[in-house]
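Page 47, continued from p. 46.
Same chain as before, 259 aa.
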Amino acid sequence: MSYHYHNETIIKNLAEDMVFVFGSNMAGTHAGGAAKIALQHFGATRGVGRGWAGQSFAIPTMNEHLQQMPLSQIEYYIGDFKIYVKNHAQTIFFITAVGCGVAGYKVEEIAPMFKGIAHNVIFPESFRPFVEKTLPKINQHFLKQVIDPLLILASEPEQVLETLHLTAAEQSLATILLNTPMFPVDSNGRERDFEIQDILHTLNNKIPRFIANDATALPVGGVILALLELYRINEQDFVDVYLGQREISAPSAANHAKK
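Result:
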């Protein structure tokens, strides 16, 4: 059974049987990010930095001094939350990108901690690679099918994707890459243009006639950057796979979170 996901846009209301889950500080100031939304719209209470309040549930990611908590401590609180979710099977928990905003952690550091949680949750789309089943190996066939402007710039890429000769796991991976914000900004609002340009420059020097230097380049480069970060590989790894010299397996979810 697969999980459900949301597109990480700001929401201000949920159905009565749903709970808004956000990252908090132990002081319960709820001054920014998802915590502020929880305070304004979902019944979070000032001074309560952990657990249920109103239509919200706080997972601490910062201490009472508003300093970043160690990942091991955050994992402890997420473990408590997983038990709470299991014990409240009739409630649907709308999980935001806990710890990936004000607290400053990366998705790949936080998301794997939620792996194995009960299915009455809705995850942010960026968590998908780290809570679903193992991602497939990437090979030359996959890259040449997916790293294609005709797919990436299509008005309805899902329809184009269905016409490609990919396994179900490869289609899922392609969907993740296409839906990962990188250009013009990533999910944290950071501009990645120069990084993408550097990647494309390197690849064009190593792969003959790889991609034209036109308006399609940066969006395609954004998908490549998403792949490099997801699989924790570099440009040379990409070149090796694209040229058919090897295949690369996805890193295990357990290795994403730094303890």
